[in-house]
Specification:
This protein has helices at about 5-15, 25-40, 40-45, 70-75, 90-105, 115-125, 150, 155-165, 235-245; strands spanning about 135, 140, 175-180, 185-195, 195-200, 205-210, 215-220. It folds into 3 domains: about 5-105, Cytochrome Bc1 Complex, Chain D, domain 2; about 115-165 and about 225-245, Cytochrome Bc1 Complex, Chain D, domain 2, CATH 1.10.760; about 175-220, Roll (SH3 type barrels). By secondary structure, the protein is α+β, with helices and mostly antiparallel strands. α2 (about 25-40) crosses α5, α4 (about 70-75) crosses α5 (about 90-105) and α8 (about 155-165) crosses α9. The N and C termini lie far apart (about 60 Å). The strands form 2 sheets. Strands 6-5-4-3-7 form a 5-stranded antiparallel sheet, with no helix packed on it. Strands 1-2 form a two-stranded antiparallel ribbon. It is globular. It is about 35% helix and about 15% strand. Bound molecules: heme C (2 copies). The site of one heme C (HEC) has 25 residues, from α8. One heme C binds next to α8.
Length: about 250
């Protein structure tokens, strides 16, 4: 009888008694955590925590996991209704992974040298960034909103993105080229996709929907609509922009 009781206890125990502070954060735990992270998390969050599909983990303060206990719970249970999965690691491994995740946030402290005020001016005038990006209530929608970007992305990521946007393009902003069976061709950002159709947003910001069974050819480009600013803006101007964007932490 109750053969499942030990299992149930194993499942419940950390729930009723998750410590506030990570009990496993020695150098050795961090090294183990790194190994676990590289195997299980880096595919989505990137080896340095600030890339790809997952949320940026290379920030000084994780929006949903500023406390160790919250971080533990996210790694263990995932975030419902998002791509963030739960994990079947044991208690010790969960904490070790959490300990390593904390080190990603500390890597970030590369000093931001630019002048944020000058950066704001470039952003709103010569840079032309508002043509495609929203910030607060201003700007366009070809690219993702940059409201609060400083809390989501590290300064290193921001700089890399401005210099050479093609270096890392999230899946949802991939440019695709579609040729339909009727011979029509379309090009735009894939904003949505389900079993039957694909929705694109073209360079003018117009939405187009195509049925999949009408598609003859689909080419996904590792390209982005975002222009590279390397050579178009000086190093100083780019640092100023990074300083301005890094300071965008709130909802405005
Ligand atoms: C399949 C992709 C995927 C994998 C694998 C994955 N994550 Fe995530 N993770 C995400 C996504 C997507 C989000 C953002 C969810 C959202 O808010 O939409 C996220 C969010 C998070 C957050 C919350 C950050 C915050 O405060 O906003 C943490 C912490 C996290 N992941 C850690 C991990 C760790 C540690 C691992 C490995 C054990 C891992 N993730 C594996 C996709 C993934
Ligand atoms: C012609 C449209 C366009 C212009 C102009 C443009 N961007 Fe972008 N930007 C995009 C698109 C589309 C993406 C999303 C695809 C990608 O990540 O490459 C993007 C992505 C970004 C990202 C990454 C956001 C994230 O969540 O990681 C940053 C940062 C950014 N742009 C900053 C800027 C800045 C700063 C300027 C002005 C100097 C600028 N962009 C000008 C279209 C544009």
């Amino acid at each position: 009888m109750f053969w499942w009781a030990p299992f149930l206890l194993f499942q419940l125990q950390p729930l009723v008694d998750i410590p506030d502070k990570n009990p496993y954060s020695s150098a050795n735990d961090i090294a183990q955590g790194k190994r676990l992270y590289m195997g299980r998390c880096a595919g989505c969050h990137g080896p340095t925590g600030d890339g790809g599909k997952g949320a940026n983990l290379a920030v000084p303060k994780l929006p949903r996991a500023s406390e160790d206990r919250a971080l533990y719970r996210i790694i263990r249970f995932g975030i419902p209704d998002t791509e963030m999965p739960g994990s079947l690691m044991d208690n010790h491994e969960l904490w070790q992974t959490a300990a390593f995740v904390r080190t990603l946030g500390r890597l970030e402290s590369a000093p931001v040298t630019g002048n944020a005020q000058a950066g704001e001016k470039i952003f709103k005038t010569t840079g032309g960034c508002l043509n495609c990006h929203a910030l607060g209530s201003q700007g366009g929608n070809i690219g993702p909103t940059l409201t609060g970007i400083g809390a989501r992305r590290s300064s290193a990521h921001l700089k890399a993105k401005i210099l050479d946007p093609a270096s890392s393009v999230p899946d949802q902003f991939r440019l695709v080229q579609i040729t339909t069976k009727a011979g029509k061709s379309l090009r735009g950002i894939r904003v949505n996709e389900d079993t039957f159709s694909i929705q694109l947003r073209d360079a003018n910001g117009n939405f187009q929907s195509v049925w999949k069974d009408e598609i003859a050819k689909l080419v996904s480009e590792k390209k982005t609509n975002m222009p590279a600013y390397k050579g178009r803006l000086s190093d100083e101007q780019i640092n100023d922009l990074v300083a301005f964007l890094s300071g965008q932490k709130g909802d405005q």
